[in-house]
Design a protein that fits this description.
Blueprint lengths: L4 H7 L7 E5 H10 L4 H12 L7 H46 L20 E5 L5 H5 L10 E5 L3 H7 L30 H9 L11 E5 L21 H27 L2 E4 L11 H8 L8 H16 L2 H28 L5 H14 L3 E3 L3 H7 L12 H12 L19 H13 L5 H18 L3 H4 L19 E5 L1 H12 L6 E7 L4 E7 L7 E6 L11 H9 L18 E4 L7 H4 L2 E6 L6 E5 L6 E5 L5 E5 L19 E5 L5 E7 L2 E7 L5 E5 L4 E4 L17 E11 L13 E8 L8 E3 L10 E4 L3 E5 L8 E8 L7 E9 L5 E10 L5 E12 L17 E6 L5 E5 L4 E4 L5 E5 L7 E5 L5 E4 L5 E4 L4 E5 L6 E5 L4 E4 L5 E4 L5 E4 L1 H5 L5 E5 L6 E4 L4 E5 L5 E5 L2 E5 L5 E4 L4 E5 L17 E4 L4 E5 L5 E5 L4 E4 L32 E5 L5 E5 L1 H12 L5 E7 L2 E11 L2 H15 L1 H4 ...
Parallel strand pairs: 1-2, 3-4, 5-11, 6-57
Antiparallel strand pairs: 7-54, 7-57, 8-9, 9-53, 10-12, 12-13, 13-14, 14-15, 15-16, 16-17, 17-18, 18-19, 19-20, 20-30, 21-24, 21-25, 21-29, 22-23, 22-26, 26-27, 28-29, 30-31, 31-32, 32-33, 33-34, 34-35, 35-36, 37-38, 38-39, 39-40, 40-41, 41-42, 42-43, 43-44, 44-45, 45-46, 46-47, 47-48, 48-49, 49-50, ...
Helix pairs in contact: 1-8, 2-3, 9-10, 10-14
């Protein structure tokens, strides 16, 4: 509704000489009037065929390009002329100055400098062009594009004023509501369809609007004049004022476009490839990972495997092939060396083999520092593992990667290349201070480091730094006088601890400062707590500032909501100089999305964060001891046949505990369960009904997917025949059919093609060829191969006619017959082709070496019911139920009895049940019983591998062929619902059931206890964390800090209550403050305000300072390190940190503590803790139980070879030094 004719006239006038208005209609008229103009001829022809239609962009784009070239040439001439004039003026001024100097006269003034060039010489305003997307697309082939699309944000009131009150808004677009009659006068007029089309195409490649920035120009209405004043000449009704604003906006946009070109030119643009449809190559990663046991694979080891795969994938084909050949040769060499060593000497007896294994285990390190987690993982394997492969390779690769990480301080990383003070200066300063001090040198040195660390932390914690310490201290902020403990770490141990802290879910800030007096780097990891104990932070992904954007999107990223006429400072390119350009199919909303995080800080030093995202809200819990948790809920499932809104599914709680243990509490089979997974790959699950689910890790010899052979092969096709061949393909000479066979899906330059000989005529539509075709299958062709069959009719006068075509995937077998392969005719009819095929491998031994037999079915999971029944699930889909009375039920998935249950009772009688419920007879199994004359035990063996041992006291032991053993007490055999049952099997922990109490108990591979009783599942972890899941879905999570207390507070303070059905979390901390969050977005915080820093009042009413400089509980204490240039360092600990460690070791009977003073520092006491790992103790206990069991002594009726891996003696130690720091007053 706004008339732009007056505005364009102002812009084309003399007031704006740098602006040129390009009227597409005028350019077209000029082209029509020009003589011998090809563009004019094309325009005339278009108008003759499409009378009254607007000219398309394909005709107008060349005219615009020609005009722009003309303007550019004129601008270059004008610029050269201005430069020449400036040079002539400078030369004339220099001559005048020289003449004045000779005449001893005053030199003439210098000519005024030429004005600085603007961002552009000419600003072109295009009008009369573009009625649809196709018009702008015509600019792209010519290298042209629209830089800015300016929307005049005229208000409805201004339009009415300009139209004399008769303005009517345009009709609404489809799907929009019609505007009201009485629109507000300051409401922006609705954009028309053309403007919406430009906005939707902006940034699209090939649209002519790829670098188009859509901006708005708004002009405020002038205020009403005061009495006696003239009205201001401004507003939308004054074309000159609007033209000035447009010129200002065009200059700003041109400046930002030049800024954009400089920004992109300074960066290296990396095109991010689209994820391929096929699975990526992971052969190197899988090969390296499969060579090491799961328990020894830490994050650095997996990162090393991943980097090796990335390097291999990025290498050339020759390098990749050479690497694979070297790996294969190395594997073969190791195998041959081991076999040669085994054959070179005499055969060893079992005792000699055991002695060798014991000697090898004795050579392993026995005294292991607890801080070396990589070494601890390699030495502490699962006590339930049947075999113990070597973890030396994993440890070697992990140590190599850790040694190359840039640790702060190591190799003077982050500190000056040369010490700020020389060794003599440091010695003199330290000697003088120690000589005049009444404190020990270690106390003085430590206190000076703590004082520097306190200043470092206070600089990053604004709220805590302003809090005064209690009297009589006059200090404020962090003092860090509560660090009496020091934990010495070597280079590898410090690197591992820093990596764990950098990967912590709380994301603390890393602070560093150089301490010149001791030539060390002071390092602090700190997370400031705001005054309100609640913080809201909004951030985007790191990729947000490293993404390549077209000019329009870059303009929005630069301005961040500022008005378009502003020109901000140029942005700084990324530090690495790389921008990443994503494919058009990538959803850029994921990069642009703004994530808002609400953080809560209770006094138990937990960080609670709530993140609302498009994929679902998430609540994360980060604990001070490194434990991490996440509460999430899957999206609801919509039922298309129901009008009711879907119910929100239950949430799930995931925890990551010390030692690599993973815990998941969530819904399972209509109820709730707790799943525990360890680093050895074994997964244990306990639901509220008492059913235990045990899932073993995949077997080491699981068959790998078939890979292409290393040598070429031949595909042999014979006895080819076809039916349904058209007999009237050639009216003159009938049909002369032949078949063309082409190999597909390979990278060779030459196309592998073979054709059958010509068949003269097709009798009754049937043709047959007796010759044999051979197709070469190169290395690049996948297996099984894909071929194309084409049926042609030979024409001797012109090209052959294609009758039918089809594709065929050859089966994986080496040979066979294929019948009725369909080839489609153009009319939709089918030709059926039959043939015989065989694959002749290039390896001459392939035809005589038998194929590898299929692996035997292995167990993929089992369930232990509260009654003691065990249900096994095998890899081939079979199910097997093992009962306490030695009955066995088996469901066979294939064969003659597919889908049938076969039940065998204790007496060996069998019966089968078909899927229809019909029973059928099966022959019984052989059975034999004997009585031991010494113990009185009755041993019964069955031909299916089952042994039943009945003791004299009435207890029983049932051992099945798979190794599963069910041990029942006498009460369990005599009474229903009483007694105890133990279920054990190789590779699994023992499941203990108390039938009277209806409880189930089993131990996880890392020493945690998982139990179920009265509808409640409980988990107690050695780190001090405990979890309780009720049948209603309520989780009570007790952090490790509560394990240091004598008893849990009766008020529930410090316990984290999580409701899985509601997806809610609530906590009351020790101060009484309450925190409540749910996944729906509700966040409630009730802080109890009190003077946390007030000192304790003694009998004489004298305020006492906080002991040892302890900080208030609401302040999350930082982690402090002192890093040396050689890579080693020391961590400074609080009493609370050591108390948590001692609480974890308190329940360990193998733990001992040795306290002794340090000879070099009488004020310090060394506390050395030693203990044996739980995995070692459990493995020894299981072996002792096996040795003492009479079942093993009576197993001679059914000899079975059992693998018993050697248990290496390992002793962990941790040495802490306690040295009382200087008090606040002594500092």
């Amino acid at each position: 509704g706004y008339d732009t004719a007056a505005l364009l006239k102002e812009l084309a006038g003399d007031a704006f000489p740098a602006i040129t208005v390009l009227d597409a209609a005028a350019l077209a008229a000029a082209a029509e009037g020009a003589k011998d103009s090809e563009a004019g001829t094309a325009i005339k022809a278009f108008k003759a065929q499409h009378a009254g239609a607007p000219l398309p962009g394909t005709l107008l784009a060349p005219l615009i390009a020609s005009k722009l070239e003309e303007l550019k040439a004129a601008g270059l001439v004008a610029r050269d002329a201005a430069a020449a004039a400036e040079a002539a003026a400078a030369e004339a001024h220099a001559a005048a100055v020289a003449a004045a100097k000779e005449a001893s006269e005053e030199p003439p003034p210098a000519p005024p400098p030429a004005p600085a060039p603007g961002p552009a010489d000419v600003y072109c305003v295009l009008t009369g062009f573009g009625s649809g997307p196709a018009d702008y697309a015509g600019l792209a082939p010519l290298g042209l594009g629209i830089d800015s699309a300016v929307w005049l944000a005229v208000t409805s009131g201004a339009l009415r004023e300009a139209a004399g009150g008769t303005y009517e808004p345009p009709p609404p677009a489809e799907g929009q509501e019609a505007p009201g009659v009485a629109e507000a006068p300051n409401t922006e007029a609705r954009r028309d369809a053309a403007a919406e089309a430009i906005a939707s195409l902006a940034g699209t490649h090939g649209s002519g609007l790829k670098h188009c920035a859509c901006v708005s120009l708004a002009i405020e209405r002038p205020p009403p004049p005061a009495d006696g004043e003239e009205p201001a000449a401004a507003g939308w009704g004054v074309p000159a004022a609007v033209a000035a604003k447009v010129a200002e906006l065009l200059s700003a946009m041109a400046a930002k476009r030049a800024m954009y070109d400089a920004y992109i030119g300074a960066c290296f643009v990396v095109d991010v490839p689209v994820a391929p449809a096929a699975l990526p190559d992971t052969r190197v990663y899988a090969s390296l990972a499969n060579r090491s046991p799961l328990h020894a694979q830490g994050v650095p080891f997996l990162l090393d495997c991943l980097l090796s795969q990335v390097v291999h994938s990025a290498s050339t084909d020759e390098q990749a092939a050479s690497y694979l050949v070297e790996q294969e040769i190395s594997t073969i060499s190791d195998y041959l060396s081991s076999q040669l060593a085994a054959l070179s000497g005499p055969t060893k007896s079992a005792a000699q083999v055991a002695a060798d294994e014991a000697a090898q285990s004795a050579e392993r390190p026995r005294l292991v520092p607890a801080a070396d987690e990589a070494l601890a993982r390699a030495l502490c394997s699962s006590p339930y593992a049947v075999a113990q492969p070597s973890a030396a390779k994993a440890l070697e690769r992990e140590k190599a990667l850790l040694s190359g990480l840039p640790v702060p301080g190591k190799g003077r990383n982050g500190i000056p290349a040369e010490p700020a003070l020389s060794a003599d200066e440091r010695g003199v300063e330290r000697t003088e201070l120690h000589h005049f001090s009444k404190f020990s040198p270690a106390q003085v040195d430590g206190s000076m480091q703590l004082r520097a660390l306190a200043a470092l932390v206070n600089g990053a914690d604004a709220h805590r730094a302003g809090q005064p310490q209690p009297p009589p201290s006059k200090a404020a902020g962090w003092l860090l006088a509560d660090r009496p403990w020091s934990d010495e770490l070597d280079a590898s141990e410090l690197c591992q601890r820093l990596v764990a802290l950098r990967a912590a879910a709380a994301h603390p800030e890393m602070l560093t400062a150089y301490h010149a007096r001791d030539d060390v780097l002071l390092l602090a990891f700190h997370l400031p707590v705001p005054e309100s104990r609640q913080a809201v932070d909004s951030r985007r992904l790191a990729m947000y500032n490293k993404t390549y954007r077209p000019f329009g999107a870059w303009h929005e990223w630069l301005m961040r909501g500022l008005p378009a006429w502003r020109v901000p400072a140029p942005p700084v390119p990324p530090l690495d100089g790389c921008l990443y350009r994503f494919a058009p199919s990538f959803d850029m909303a994921r990069v642009e999305a703004l994530t808002t995080t609400t953080s809560l800080f209770p006094t138990d030093h937990t960080v609670i964060r709530f993140n609302p995202t498009a994929d679902g809200n998430r609540l994360t819990l980060s604990y001070h001891d490194g434990v991490h948790g996440a509460l999430t809920r899957p999206p609801p499932v919509f039922d298309p046949d129901s009008d009711e809104p879907p119910a929100a599914p239950a949430a799930s709680l995931a925890l990551s505990l010390a030692g690599g243990t993973r815990v998941l509490a969530g819904a399972c089979d209509g109820g709730f369960s707790v799943r525990v997974g360890g680093v050895d790959g074994l997964e244990l699950q306990m639901d509220c009904t008492g059913v235990a689910h045990l899932t073993p890790p995949p077997p080491a010899d699981e068959p790998a997917p078939v890979e292409p052979p290393s040598t070429a092969a031949l595909l042999k096709l014979s006895r080819i025949s076809a039916s349904g061949v058209p007999t009237d393909a050639d009216a003159g000479s009938g049909t002369d059919p032949y078949i063309k066979v082409t190999l597909l899906e390979h990278d060779e330059d030459d196309i592998t093609v073979q054709t059958t000989p010509l068949m003269n005529g097709a009798e009754d539509g049937h043709s047959a060829w007796d010759d044999v075709l051979f197709l070469t299958l190169p290395d690049s062709a996948p297996r099984p191969p894909l071929i194309r069959l084409e049926l042609f009719d030979k024409d001797f006068n012109k090209s052959d006619d294609l009758l039918a075509t089809g594709e065929l995937r050859i089966p994986t077998a080496l040979g066979g017959q294929l019948a009725e392969v369909e080839l489609l005719l153009p009319e939709g009819q089918k030709v059926l082709v039959s043939l015989t095929y065989s694959v002749v491998l290039g390896d001459p031994t392939s035809e005589v070496v038998p194929a590898k037999p299929a692996p035997l079915p292995y167990e993929v999971g089992r369930r232990v019911l509260p009654s003691g029944t065990v249900v096994r699930r095998l890899s081939d889909g079979a199910l097997q139920a093992l009962y306490r009375n030695a009955n066995v039920s088996m469901l066979t998935p294939s064969g003659d009895m597919a889908g049938c249950w076969v039940h065998t009772n204790a007496a060996g009688l069998r019966v089968g049940v078909r899927p229809t419920g019909q029973e059928f007879y099966l022959p019984p199994l052989a059975l034999a019983s004997s009585t031991d004359p010494v113990t009185g035990c009755i041993v019964t063996t069955r031909s299916d591998g089952i042994l039943v041992l009945t003791r004299a006291d009435g207890s029983r032991l049932v051992t099945f062929a798979c190794g599963t053993s069910l041990a029942m007490t006498a009460d369990a055999e005599k009474y229903a619902g009483r007694g105890e049952v133990s279920v054990s099997a190789p590779g699994y922990p023992t499941v203990r059931l108390n039938l009277r109490q209806r409880s189930v108990l089993l131990a996880t591979p890392d020493g945690a206890a998982l139990s179920s009783a009265d509808g409640t599942v409980r988990l107690s972890h050695p780190s001090g964390v405990s979890l309780q899941l009720a049948q209603s879905g309520l989780v009570e999570l007790l952090p490790a800090a509560l394990s240091t207390l004598e008893e849990v507070p009766s008020t529930g303070a410090g316990i984290h209550y999580i409701s899985l059905p509601d997806g809610s979390f609530r906590l009351k901390d020790a101060e009484g403050s309450s925190f409540a969050v749910d996944l729906g977005g509700r966040v409630e915080v009730d802080i109890v305000v009190k003077d946390e820093l007030a000192g304790a009042v003694a009998d004489d009413d004298a305020p006492q300072p906080i002991g040892g400089g302890d900080e208030p509980e609401w302040s999350h204490p930082p982690r402090l390190f002192v890093c040396r240039p050689d890579g080693s360092g020391v961590e400074l600990l609080r009493d609370a940190d050591v108390a948590l460690f001692e609480a974890c070791r308190k329940g360990d009977a193998s733990c001992s503590v040795v306290q002794e003073p340090l000879p070099s520092d009488p004020e310090a006491v060394s506390h050395c803790y030693t203990w044996r790992p739980w995995q070692l103790m459990e493995a020894l206990r299981r072996q002792a139980d096996d040795d003492e069991s009479e079942a093993k002594a009576l197993i001679g009726f059914m000899p079975r070879v059992e693998e018993r891996p050697p248990v290496a003696p390992v002793l962990f130690f941790r040495r802490l030094v306690r040295r009382e720091p200087l008090g606040v007053a002594d500092r």
